[in-house]
Amino acid sequence: MANKLLLAAFFLSGIANANYVDQIETINAQIQLVNKNAELQAALQKSMGASVTLPKVLTLIADTKGAEATVLYSSGRTRTIKKGDVLAKRVKVTSISHAGVEVSTPTGKSYLSFNNPEVTDQSTANDAAIVPSAPSIKIPTIPVPRNPNVPSPSASPMASQG
Prior knowledge:
Oligomer: single chain
Number of helices: 2
Number of domains: 2
Order of helices and strands: HEEEEEEEH
Low-confidence stretches: 120-125
Strand content: 15-25%
Shape: elongated
């Protein structure tokens, strides 16, 4: 009887130790992931400080009551804008007319280009100068904790019930 209790205590301490090791591995992987995410955000902020990607015009309405436009950002987000709105850091809408949406940027005034869904590559020489390159950062994988109570998947297909 004492041997069985001793054996059971030994077995349970091994499971507890394995769970502890798995938890530590998971926490360490999560810390690495958070650090890489912070590194990525810092790199993106650094690259965005030097340049700004301007949105494309989707729709434009200008009449006697005023003017507004719907723009499409490179992230896929859309937004309705009017004169005076700020599109990005140091980018402000100066006018909206039938001719298009005029914005003031640190490099001067320019018009937003129109979105053309039929054209797959809409980049221009001007766009290439203002689009930052994405930083290359390796994100670590998170280990899956080992659990001896979960059965491994079987190689045999499940029998259909009829």
